[in-house]
């Protein structure tokens, strides 16, 4: 089967429209060794729910997270990359943290710490799912976290020198809160 025979013709006009094309992430797909075990992980830690899933030539399960989805698939030849990850915003970072601690899910190896405070004051936590996928959990304000959690945070600025541009970086844009993240991520026109 041949696809995109005339694709090169479209590149000439596509560049001008690229900034307008994507409006949100629809889903992320990750490998699972066992669909039930991986689905249980995402249901327990993040409250995701299984949803109707079309049948494919290999086992697949779709999970709902607000208006977005996580797709799990089983392919014997697939191994989760150790550092590739996706990130989730949650409305209760502390509950996820305590559950991850209780279940032994925190991953401090991939990025040298399981918990970071970024220069913008936000917090990141890393966990591994049963198939070895790395999941980042984000929170907009580390100062609002329980003191025991804050004590476990590694300051990225203290660990790695930050230049002026890095100090301006932020995971959360103006007006962002964990509650907004149920909806799709919208691409805003910057006016430039």
Radius of gyration: 19 Å
* CATH-defined architecture of the largest domain: 2-Layer Sandwich
The separation of the N and C termini measures: 41 Å
Question: What is the average per-residue confidence, as pLDDT, rounded to a whole number?
Answer: 85
Mass-distribution shape: globular
* Spatial arrangement of strands, main beta sheet: 5-8-7-6-9
Molecular structure report:
With 192 residues, the protein is of the alpha/beta class. It has 2 domains: 26-75, Roll (2,3-Dihydroxybiphenyl 1,2-Dioxygenase, domain 1), CATH 3.10.180; 82-181, Signal recognition particle alu RNA binding heterodimer, srp9/1 (2-Layer Sandwich), CATH 3.30.720.110. 25% of the residues lie in helices and 22% in strands. The protein has helices at 7-17, 35-46, 93-103, 147-152, 156-159, 164-167; strands at residues 27-31, 49-51, 60-65, 68-73, 85-89, 115-117, 123-128, 134-139, 154-155. A hairpin with an 8-residue loop joins strand 2 and strand 3. The termini are far apart.
In short:
By secondary structure, the protein is of the alpha/beta class.
Key attributes of the depicted protein:
alpha/beta, 5-stranded mixed β-sheet, Signal recognition particle alu RNA binding heterodimer, srp9/1, 4-stranded mixed β-sheet, 2,3-Dihydroxybiphenyl 1,2-Dioxygenase, domain 1, 192 residues, 9 strands, 6 helices, 2 domains, disordered C terminus
């Amino acid at each position: 089967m041949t696809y995109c025979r005339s694709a090169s013709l479209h590149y000439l006009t596509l560049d001008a429209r690229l900034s307008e094309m994507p409006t949100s992430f629809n889903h992320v797909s990750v490998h699972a060794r066992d669909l039930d075990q991986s689905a249980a992980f995402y249901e327990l830690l993040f409250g995701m729910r299984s949803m109707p899933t079309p049948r494919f030539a290999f086992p697949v399960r779709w999970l709902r997270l607000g208006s977005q989805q996580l797709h799990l698939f089983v392919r014997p030849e697939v191994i989760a990359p150790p550092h590739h990850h996706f990130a989730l915003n949650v409305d209760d970072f502390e509950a996820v943290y305590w559950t991850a601690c209780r279940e032994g899910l925190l991953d401090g190896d991939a990025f040298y710490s399981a918990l970071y405070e970024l220069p913008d004051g936000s917090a990141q936590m890393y966990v591994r799912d049963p198939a070895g996928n790395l999941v980042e959990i984000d929170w907009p304000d580390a100062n609002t976290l329980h003191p025991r959690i804050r004590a476990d945070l590694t300051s990225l600025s203290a660990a790695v020198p930050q230049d002026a541009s890095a100090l301006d970086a932020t995971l959360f844009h103006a007006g962002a809160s964990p509650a907004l993240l149920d909806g799709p991520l919208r691409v805003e026109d910057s006016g430039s």
